[in-house]
Amino acid sequence: MRTKIFCDIADFKTIKLFNKKRIVDGFTTNPSLMRLAGAKNYKNYSQRILKICKKKPISFEVFGDNFDEMVDQAYKINKWGKNVYVKIPVVNSKGVFSGKVINKLSFEGIKLNITAIYTYEQIKKVLKNLNKKTPTILSIFAGRMADKGKDPLPVLKQSIKAVKDFKKIEILWASTREAYNFTQAKQIRCNIITMPPSVINKVEKFGMSSKLMTINTVKNFLEDSKKSKFRI
Ligand code: E4P
């Protein structure tokens, strides 16, 4: 099994560039990335992206904060394209579990990406509400956990084990912080990892010899000391 690489970005020009890369299997966006990309009209901006990214899976997130809004937005987003996954936060901003929304949409056959997952308890609750025949991504925010001093590997490993018999359900390593996370994701046989473009660029260059790494490092220090005209 191969760990698929998704690109975590909403910027139109970057998606155009990265969509051409064979190493990139799909894309993930979120409202913060959309804002960063300068999107003013969520629907128009997403549809512009979909004119470029026609085949590879891409997730667009709902931003409604209650059951009705989430379901309504999910129906609309789902209609934007066959390759679209509707991203549903596992809870709303008040911490209320989105189980009813997930259950309804999943049993209607809508492809979902359940996002902002941090615990195995959440994974278990989500699984209870999924139609196992509907393609679904479960996004575990590894980097944000690590940023708070929590080891994301146990949750990821348990979750991967829990879905191993369900072909349509995939665990996604979200919130990637460094290129080595790709190696870790492969080691634990995680289905997907989503990475910012800068990290994908590093992964593309994997395989440099230690000898060359050492020479490059020393060269960089030398160049900077020259640029600053250091003298002792
Ligand atoms: C996943 O789909 C999210 O968009 C993403 O990985 C969040 O990453 P961040 O923690 O870097 O914002």
List keywords for this structure.
single chain; 11 helices; TIM Barrel; eight-stranded parallel barrel; alpha/beta
Q: Short summary of the structure?
A:
This protein has 232 residues and is of the alpha/beta class. The chain has helices at 12-19, 31-36, 42-52, 67-78, 99-107, 120-128, 142-147, 153-163, 180-187, 197-204, 210-227; strands spanning 4-8, 26-28, 58-61, 84-89, 112-117, 136-141, 169-174, 192-195.
Can you walk me through this structure?
By secondary structure, the chain is an alpha/beta fold. The chain has one domain (4-205): Aldolase class I (TIM Barrel, Alpha-Beta Barrel). Helix content is 46%, strand content 17%. It has an eight-stranded parallel barrel with strand order 1-2-3-4-5-6-7-8, surrounded by seven helices. Bound molecules: erythose-4-phosphate. Erythose-4-phosphate (E4P) is lined by residues 8, 28, 30, 115, 139, 141, 143-144, 174-175, 194.
Strand content: 15-25%
Give the uncertain stretches in residue-range form.
Answer: none
Mean pLDDT reading:
98
Q: Can you tell me the CATH superfamily?
A: Aldolase class I
From the N-terminal CA to the C-terminal CA, the straight-line distance is 55 Å
Query: Compounds present?
Result: erythose-4-phosphate
The CATH topology is: TIM Barrel
Q: Say how many strands there are.
A: 8
